[in-house]
């Protein structure tokens, strides 16, 4: 059975934790942050991937080098020896004894029952997919990407059929993703900038779910400009109340909600279970 489906038989929706749970001395996208997320009742870890110039895979969201590592060079321009020499900064900017995690260490640590969403990995699929095969974690790994032919062709041709979720921003992208017969399409991540977006409409969401696909909706708030689901987000849920954020995502049919606040969202999920 698909692991997402298996977990949805237990929960009304799944909780995906954005970069793990970081606070204090625990830094995002590290094994301690992923442990914290699991302890906060995460069903899925959302992690970011980069590849060094000599072909090693690491967990990091490039563009955050100054904030997290105290240096200005893009990590994707570095070799593995240079990356291994870096130390993280914690949440108050102090250098700590945490290193940028190697993908293999993260996969070996969390092999088992936790789902793992590999974000920002698509530009490496030609070498990443064969690398992933050695871990025998096909049931746990969920790949995602924008709907782009170059990415989907690689995924379509790869013999191991990892679960896949396209990032859908335009209606024609649904059919583009569905056109590939050898991709294990299991879900769609939908982006709605406002309530007028087609992806905020019940009809659109139902048409996707009627195909047996799961719906991923983002509650995370990255900044004031990027709106992922019509401002029904983590901030609104915490500041105003869950009915102003998470509840709307649930009403819209979210099977997976990505959040930065798994403890709070899980507490709300438990309350919903009790009221049924």
TrEMBL record:
Start and end residues of each GP-PDE domain: 13-276
GO biological process: lipid metabolic process
PANTHER family registered for this protein in UniProt: GLYCEROPHOSPHODIESTER PHOSPHODIESTERASE, GLYCEROPHOSPHORYL DIESTER PHOSPHODIESTERASE
Protein name: GP-PDE domain-containing protein
Domain of life of the native organism: Bacteria
InterPro entries in the cross-refs: DUF4996 (IPR032160), GP_PDE_dom (IPR030395), PLC-like_Pdiesterase_TIM-brl (IPR017946)
GO molecular function: phosphoric diester hydrolase activity
